[in-house]
Write a structure and sequence with these properties.
The protein is mainly beta and 342 residues long. Helix content is 4%, strand content 50%.
Length: 342
């Protein structure tokens, strides 16, 4: 009996229970509505949460009040993956084709912008008043001026690009999903200056975050489910830690020195940055299956996820794609927003 207890104690020490921690689900609000979904984005200054709903029958961009989670606006007929807003001029952009530029104060259309490729994710470089639109097909990056919606230029990385982050110092970092690497772009010249290989530390990167102060990149990989900490200036791998499966969104909160990764298996992985070379898994919070993208309200520190309820997987369904979780059909009107806080 003593041997069993000792073994259990050793197991608990080496694999601590991380369900308890600073974060908890504050509320889950079912807002309903049909259509697919990809990215969720918070405009903290404008107090809006943006979610694009895709589909053949009713594609639209929906704005929710960030405090009440009640619908506050909608742009119909737009099939997009996500949206971002420049808080200085209240100009928003959704990754439809053509790209949609809108007024975030009243969710009204300003104009459509013709771009090449297939717009997917977007990232905002607020100090430079730029939006970077990502596409798996060429051109991989299109830079847009947020003041007037003009196309500044494009960049090709010959890769399936996922999340991107600017350091505000002339560098844009991009997760290269099919090259197991991170690309680096000079934002002034719009040229590729480096490619940082993951070198076996991780593969199939999807989520990407950055601590501009310590110059650490956080690269969330799907195969295996790993967070790779990388030096943003040299590309050297610092260390790795486990996260949940099927990540599609990562953020870094400078106020708490935490990296948070939402994963499709229904978890929020919280990694604490104890120093530029020291990191630890602080918590693994149970969320809901399918909640794999993430948004941060910088005013409250609250985290927002989204998902739907799924039915059973059909018996004749094809085998799952490696790195992705197989799910059944989305249940009607079950779309929901999850708010998480301390």
């Amino acid at each position: 009996m003593r041997k069993i207890l000792l073994a259990a104690l050793l197991l608990a020490v080496s694999h601590p229970a991380l369900a308890d921690g600073p974060y908890k689900i504050l509320r889950t609000v079912t807002v309903g509505g049909e259509g697919g979904f990809d990215y969720i984005v918070a405009d903290s200054e404008g107090r809006r949460l943006y979610i694009a709903r895709s589909g053949k029958t009713n594609p639209r961009l929906v704005a929710y009040d960030l405090d009440t989670l009640k619908q506050a606006g909608e742009l119909d007929g737009i099939s997009a993956h996500g949206a971002v807003v420049d808080p200085s001029n209240h100009h928003g952009f959704s990754s439809s084709k053509p790209l949609t530029m809108f007024d975030s104060t009243n969710t009204s259309l300003l104009k459509s912008i013709t771009v090449d490729g297939n717009p997917d994710g977007l990232s905002l470089d607020a100090p430079a008043h730029r939006v970077y639109v990502l596409s798996h097909s060429a051109p991989n990056i299109t830079a847009i001026n947020t003041e007037d919606g003009s196309v500044i230029g494009t960049v090709n990385l010959d890769a399936a690009v996922e999340e991107s982050k600017s350091d505000g110092q002339g560098h844009l970092y991009i997760a290269l999903e099919n090259k197991d690497a991170v690309g680096v772009v000079d934002t002034k010249a719009l040229t590729v200056t480096a490619t940082y290989p993951l070198s076996g530390a991780g593969a199939t990167p999807a989520g990407l975050a950055l601590d501009p102060k310590t110059r650490v990149l956080f690269v969330a990989c799907r195969n295996p489910s790993t967070m790779v900490m990388m030096n943003a200036d040299t590309g050297a791998v610092i260390t790795t830690l486990p996260i949940g499966a099927q990540n599609d969104g990562v953020l870094f909160n400078p106020a708490t020195r935490e990296v948070l990764a939402a994963t499709g298996d229904g978890h929020l992985s919280v990694i604490k940055e104890d120093g530029p070379t020291h990191f630890s898994v602080e918590q693994t919070l149970d969320t809901m299956p399918g909640a794999r993208t993430i948004a941060l309200d910088r005013k409250t520190g609250h985290i927002f996820l989204m998902t739907v309820d799924y039915g059973p997987v059909p018996a004749d369904a094809p085998p799952p794609v490696p790195g992705r979780i197989q799910r059944g059909p989305m249940l009607p009107d079950s779309f929901k927003i999850i708010e998480i806080g301390r």
